[in-house]
Amino acid sequence: MSFSSEVKKELLSIDVLKPCCRHAEAYGMVIFGKTFSSSSVSFKTDKKEIADIYASFLSEECETEPETLEREGKKITVLLKKASDRRKVLEKFGHSQNEVTLRINRANIADDCCFSAFLRGVFLSCGTVTSPEKSYHLEFVVPFLKLSNDLFSIMSEMELEPKHVVRKGSHIIYFKDSEKIEDILTLMGAMNSSLRFMGIKMNKDMRNHVNRRVNFETANIGRSVNASAVQIEAINKIIAASKFDELPEPLQRTARLRLENPEASLNELERLTDHSVSRSGINHRLTKLTEIADGLFDDKEKN
Ligand SMILES: [Zn+2]
Known about the structure:
- The protein has 11 helices and 8 strands.
- By secondary structure, it is of the alpha+beta class.
- The chain folds into 2 domains: 3-189, Roll (Endonuclease I-creI), CATH 3.10.28.10; 210-302, no CATH class.
- Strands 1-2-4-3 form a 4-stranded antiparallel sheet, with helices on one face. A 4-stranded antiparallel sheet has the order 5-6-8-7.
- Helix 2 (19-31) packs across helix 3 (48-61) and helix 2 packs parallel to helix 5.
- The longest helix is centred in the C-terminal third of the chain and has 50 residues, at 191-240.
- Residues 18, 20-21, 24, 111, 113-114 line the site of zinc ion.
- Residues 18, 20-21, 24, 111, 113-114 line the site of zinc ion (ZN).
């Protein structure tokens, strides 16, 4: 089951006791359905449980007789065939028969408690949320501009910071911020889904942190190995030019140490000298060796 389906399943299991909230949830679901006008009130979904709750809102809240059409391989459609039923629904939610543009009637979301119920209805109707394993994304797909604007305003007032984009003629209200998505899930009453979301997010953050750490250390090892390769090349050049014996004793000792420990970091080389030479002292000598080798090259060119 997708994460989105799990969230919806959890939302469907919530018992809404207060009549005001039940009304608000029904409104959210009905107005964001496929159609909501005097000529058509309908809803489409591929989930039977969601079709059933829509139908029950129409029959119980609005006292109408919805019909459910199910055909093999097609989405389930719930609709009101009788004009008188459609009129009843519009009246119930305070909408007039001949509205040109569909707007949210805030009288249906009267009390603070009703906001979360309303949002739950809207999500059941036109919302989806991506699994946090993949990415952080929650969206509502709204067919009408004004209706999407109203939803956008309500979300903004609740400080959820929605974003808006048009995709295939639909208006998408979406969220990318993981904390806002958690807020919305919690607000709608999907507590378990919200906790699961947080858990997956924390795991992901931890994995990313570990990966970054590993990459950082690999890069550091790479750097010191590269430096070592340059130093060894320099020492070999000095040996090939028969100049090694002419080097001061401390430089000879450090050069041997490096040749014997090609993969050691400067800290490890310091340890190998029993700390008789400091890390920076070793670094200074190795730099000196490369400078001497470079000088040899220059001498040859001059000849
Ligand atoms: Zn309420």
